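Service request form, structural biology core

Requester: graduate student, group of Dr. S.
Request type: structure prediction, single chain
Budget code: on file
Notes: please return the result as structure tokens.

Sequence provided:
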Amino acid sequence: MAQKPSIPKGTRDFTPEKASRRNYIFSTISAVFQQFGYSPIETPAMENLSTLLGKYGAEGDKLLFKILNSGDYLQKANPDALEQRDSNKLITSIADKGLRYDLTVPFARFVVMNQQELTFPFKRYQIQPVWRADNPQAGRYREFYQCDVDVIGSNSLLNELELLQIIDTVFSRLQLNVLIKLNNRKILAGIAELIGQPEKIIDITVAIDKLDKIGIEKVIAELLQNGIPEESVEKLKPILQLEGSNEEKIQSLQHILADSPIGMKGVEEIAQVFHLTSLVPFQCKLELDLTLARGLNYYTGAIMEVKSTEFAIGSICGGGRYDDLTGIFGLPNMSGVGVSFGADRIYDVLNGLNRFPENQLIGPEFLVLNFGNEDEIYGLQVLNQLRQMGLSAEMYPDASKLKKQMAYADKRRIPYVIFTGEEERKSGSISLKSMADGSQKTLKIEELGI
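Core staff response, request fulfilled:
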């Protein structure tokens, strides 16, 4: 008995209709990237583990897919780790490559390796899949696409403004209502100083980044479990629950963090970003959210996250500034900032809200019908001429009954079918039928391009 086929959990097949819908997302996003002056790059699906490990924090390292070394990978395995069944020590001796976790760290590696060929500030976009050994659930996949846009080699906050404009433009074109949340890692560092726990900044940011998912009580429990004293947690709670307008929150932070130079630097930067956004049109709502932490270790300044206001799902876009990510690869003092659009979650939102364009083609625009003999020969000539005109067309491969060919056109949502019978051949014309309303007319092929 044949084995029933399956795919790994957390991955998906995309039928022509679904793939066309996802391509609609890709084309919309890439068009905006190009409009703002960004150039495309690509990097390999797998990177050396030395490139990936230690860049995403302890939790991120656990989610890296490791690739076993070729051949007898146990030949060079650490014997002590093998005997003790210590997977952490064993993995470095049996795997030296992994699937990329995101596109940002590979981008930093790319910049260092190709710096002589790049013009700085370098503005790039990248649309490729990434992999995470996560627990699959609604809106969370093990294989998914990211659409990244970054500028590196500039400290200017105008770059943050431009990325926010890109976010605003993308979601306006996709006709999605979203909320853009902003914060600054320097503000979080200042808060850590204020509560007397500057060395615990990573534990604090990792915990509060889960606030939306697990709630304040569980976040507090995690902070206490990670060694944050109760009195420090009590100082933190009112800051995380700070309310008011963006301006009022900034004013409050100026008083709260007055004795923290790094905290005040963060407040100054976030205030300037909000000022810049007031100078240009914005359709999306912007909100200063002090609970936003973006758990990745490499963020150092502004951080941002986007959520749908119409559909319950996690963040659909996020990013921030990283001051020295290239430094770990030997190129210090190269500040960058970028955001990543989660294409798969955006797909789920558009699908759930039924916002995909109704007239989106998943096949050609024209189907040339085939009734064999001379009809088929003339049909091939028509087909070739259509394609030379730049029109998408195909011919039914078999001389089948009209009902079958029309059913094929209907199922594939092909808008128009073309008849090439005796009368059409004699006059050098075609008969064009609309599948939408059944109307039919005879015309010259050249008229289709008008």
